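Appendix C: a fully annotated inverse folding record. The material below is reproduced so that readers can follow the format used throughout the book. The structure is listed first as tokens, followed by the designed sequence.
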């Protein structure tokens, strides 16, 4: 009965043997040059001359978990601003624009001060102040060249131009012809050193609308927001990465500039370049541009530690929408010796149609349309959650999802996983790692992330040793340690039928 899984496993191992030989640590050490500049910024160059292109990945060790109190969403806002240009790009006259932008901040500060008054707010004055603020914005807009930063990059062959903000960090990346590397170095270093918060309040409206779409108008978004706010009582992981609306709607360009000054310092940034580049040729170019970024003290490490959870917590939303179920258990961060064990549990529970949750809830019982478990939610830089998520089929409830998931968890705690399950996890993990190094963008991303998180990109390859060391006993031990009632927070969306009387009353009022 075990012949076919064994044959599939053997085929996978053989299929990746050649790739592994070409992408082992010693091979990369010959092609990678790492340098920490005098200002503290870390550069990584990986030579991969397969095509005349390169990819880069910039990681800033600051995400929404670093938003100052009362300013949630600020890190995400700054990511948006990074595409608005610099003192040289995106403006017809920066000297005049700077005066106009200062006026915007002055008028906004006056408006905001009156708006925040809880007692004695003068509505007429508030209207006048807001009008002055709008006039100042219109004046500053006269100097803006919209989308010039993006247009310059794309006109010179940039593809995949994007950025993203998580609770843990902020990332910027694109790919480009290798003969445009100097232009990229100028543009990327310029926006790190000299960002301009132009169109800040216009962009703030965009982010607020993003929140409305992804959270306020989304059943999953609302559930996840309430779930995290319940699971965490102290750590910033309890707040949404897009920010609370009341705070997001009031953050200012002045506050964004202060955030940049603290976190966008060279010692808090790693940049990796991979592709058709030679370190001896490009490193001097990178040093020239990125070495000019003013230095600054590395931000202090976060001191807030989430206290141990001592009781099960719950969130129940009753809405006229598709029922949902989500639960999570606190777990250590990525540096924990058992981190690879959590990866094994995730793989065994959720990787494909042979995974335990799919086979049990979706295929066999047919009570769920989707069921999965995942580690490191909502982040992994700090202690996160191992979470389980399920979408009930029609006629089934979140409570059924909860019972079925707990049944699978109990099996994991009392019975060893099979040899095939453990072997397939290790093979897939190795394959995923090698696949992620198969193109310039993935390679640059992994090198930058591991350099940032571990202080040495070589730790990427040490992960294979940790994966290989995972045992059946480790999985049972970690499951019994983590998946306990007092460590659990769950959330469910229960379907609530409409109230016929309320509908009739509303319709009658409308008539």
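Designed amino acids, in order:
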């Amino acid at each position: 009965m075990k012949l076919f899984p064994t044959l599939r496993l053997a085929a996978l191992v053989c299929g990746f043997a050649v790739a592994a030989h070409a992408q082992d640590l010693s091979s990369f050490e010959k092609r990678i040059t790492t340098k920490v500049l005098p200002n503290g910024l870390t550069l990584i160059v990986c030579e991969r001359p397969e095509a005349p292109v390169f990819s880069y990945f910039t990681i800033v060790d600051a995400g929404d978990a670093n938003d100052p109190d009362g300013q949630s969403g600020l890190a995400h806002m700054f990511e948006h601003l990074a595409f608005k240009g610099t003192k040289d790009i995106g403006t017809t006259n920066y000297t005049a624009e700077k005066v106009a932008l200062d006026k915007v901040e002055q008028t906004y500060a006056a408006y905001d001060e009156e708006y925040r008054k809880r007692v004695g707010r003068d509505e007429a004055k508030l209207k006048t102040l807001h009008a002055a603020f709008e006039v100042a914005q219109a004046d500053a807009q006269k100097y803006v060249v919209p989308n010039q930063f993006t247009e310059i990059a794309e006109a010179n062959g940039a593809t995949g131009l994007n950025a993203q903000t998580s609770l843990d960090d902020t990332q910027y990346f694109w790919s480009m012809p290798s003969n445009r590397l100097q232009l990229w170095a100028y543009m990327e270093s310029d926006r790190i050193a000299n960002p301009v918060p132009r169109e800040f309040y216009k962009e703030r409206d965009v982010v607020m609308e993003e929140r409305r779409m992804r959270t306020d108008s989304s059943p999953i978004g609302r559930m996840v927001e309430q779930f995290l706010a319940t699971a965490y009582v102290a750590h910033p992981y309890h707040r949404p990465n897009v920010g609370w609306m009341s705070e997001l709607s009031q953050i200012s360009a002045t506050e964004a500039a202060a955030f940049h000054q603290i976190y966008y310092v060279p010692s808090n940034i790693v940049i990796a370049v991979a592709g058709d580049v030679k370190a001896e040729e490009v490193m001097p170019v990178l040093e020239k541009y990125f070495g000019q970024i003013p230095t600054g003290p590395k931000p202090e490490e976060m001191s807030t530690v989430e206290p141990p959870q001592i009781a099960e917590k719950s969130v129940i939303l009753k809405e006229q929408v598709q029922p949902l179920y989500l639960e999570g258990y606190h777990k250590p961060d990525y540096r924990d010796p058992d981190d690879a064990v959590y990866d094994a549990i995730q793989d065994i529970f959720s990787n494909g149609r042979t995974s335990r949750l799919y086979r049990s809830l979706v295929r066999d019982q047919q009570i769920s349309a989707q069921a999965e478990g995942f580690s490191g939610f909502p982040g992994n830089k700090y202690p996160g959650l191992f979470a389980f998520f399920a979408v009930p089929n029609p006629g089934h409830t979140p409570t059924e999802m909860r019972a079925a998931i707990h049944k699978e968890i109990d099996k994991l705690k009392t019975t060893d996983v099979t040899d095939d399950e453990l072997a397939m996890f290790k093979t897939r993990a190795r394959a995923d790692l090698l696949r992620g190094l198969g193109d310039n963008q993935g390679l640059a991303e992994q090198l930058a992330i591991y350099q940032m998180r571990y202080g040495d990109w070589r730790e990427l390859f040490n992960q294979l040793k940790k994966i290989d060391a995972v045992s059946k006993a480790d999985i049972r031990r970690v499951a019994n340690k983590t998946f306990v009632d007092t460590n659990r927070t769950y959330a469910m969306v229960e379907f609530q039928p409409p109230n016929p009387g309320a509908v009739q009353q509303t319709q009658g009022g409308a008539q």
